[in-house]
Amino acid sequence: MTMLSVNMNVAALLRNRRDHAWPDVVELGRIALEAGAGGLTVHPRPDERHTRPSDVRNLRKLIKADFPKCELNVEGFPDARFLSLVQDVQADQVTLVPDAHDQATSDHGWDFVVEREQLTKIVTDLKKNGHRVALFADPDAHHMKGAAETGADRVELYTGPYGGAYHTAIAQERELDRLIEAITEAERHGLVVNAGHDLTVIGTAQLIARAPSVAEVSIGHALFCDALIYGMAETVRRYLMSCVVNDVPLSS
Q1: Is 231 helix (H, G, I), strand (E, B) or coil?
Q2: Distance from CA of residue 184 to its chain's centroid?
Q3: Which of 93, 209, 216, 229 could form a disulfide with 3 if both were Cys (CB 3.0 to 4.6 A apart)?
Q4: From the centroid of its chain, how far is CA 97?
Q5: 133 backbone φψ class: left, alpha, beta (φ>0; ψ -120 to 50)
Q6: Do the strands 132-137 and 93-96 form a parallel or antiparallel pair, or are they unpaired?
Q7: Whole-number Cα distances in Å, 51 to 40, 77, 99, 193, 203
Q8: Catalytic residue among 71, 75, 156, 185
Q9: Does the predicted TM-score (pTM) go above 0.85?
Q10: Other Cβ atoms within 10 Å of 217 Cβ, number
């Protein structure tokens, strides 16, 4: 079964609008893990507009104390501050993302030709410190060889184009085919595959039905939107069901 990692950025963003203590990011993380999520994801950005370093540390404490079999995935651009933070919290998985400081959200993967030397050094150092390393990648089969050559353990395939193709089955099929080709090529080069961005319950189920080998999905925005209707615990359970292989037709 594919592991579900709940991205906590939306909870932190909502809290920061008023700078109160609620919603409580740690308690929402606890509810998600109690409901069966395998881990939590955070993406602390330099401007701290959502998840802050203090959130990352507090979520690490939660997992270590009460959910030792679960994982903390910390993702972000590998500047000195970020690399210091992931080492400090002993992140189980570090996902490197090529975000600009002022970028609204992650929307593209690494250029593994241009950035290979830099990424190889960072990946090597992170692995020496005991972290599993994933690289954010566009859903393009041609990029997988370059990703593997950095020494990374995994790629996280950017599923934004697939998530945005909800309007027609033809568009979904086209984007899903791209993902499957990239997954196949990544695995051929020895990479484990994660996926994330704009995955709904149905979209996740459709992806896992075609690619049951996907190790992990990291989901935040759509999951928190559903939580407004169903509550966090029930929403996590709905997503967990989508991580089990089923025959799911594409939306029309």
Answers
A1: coil
A2: 19
A3: 216
A4: 10
A5: beta
A6: parallel
A7: 12, 14, 15, 25, 26
A8: 75
A9: yes
A10: 28
State phi, psi for 73 to the nearest 5 degrees.
-110, 120
Q: Given the residues 50, 131, 143, 197, select the one marked as catalytic.
A: 197
Spatial contact of 251 and 166, defined as CB atoms under 8 Å apart = yes
DSSP code at position 244:
S
Q: What is the pLDDT along the chain (252 residues), one digit of tens a residue?
A: 899 999 999 999 999 999 888 999 999 999 999 999 999 999 999 988 899 999 999 999 999 999 999 999 999 999 999 999 999 999 999 999 997 666 666 667 899 999 999 999 999 999 999 999 999 999 999 999 999 999 999 999 999 999 988 778 898 999 999 999 999 999 999 999 999 999 999 999 999 999 999 999 999 999 999 999 999 999 999 999 999 976 555 553
Alpha carbon distance 198, 67 (integer Å): 26
What is the crossing angle of helices 9-16 and 25-34, to 10°?
150
Which of 43, 50, 131, 143 is the catalytic position? 43
Q: Identify whether 216 is a catalytic site residue.
A: no
Is residue 189 annotated as part of the catalytic site, yes or no? no
Map out the domains of the chain with their CATH numbers: 3-242 (3.20.20.70)
Are 52 and 12 in contact by the 8 Å Cβ rule? The answer is yes
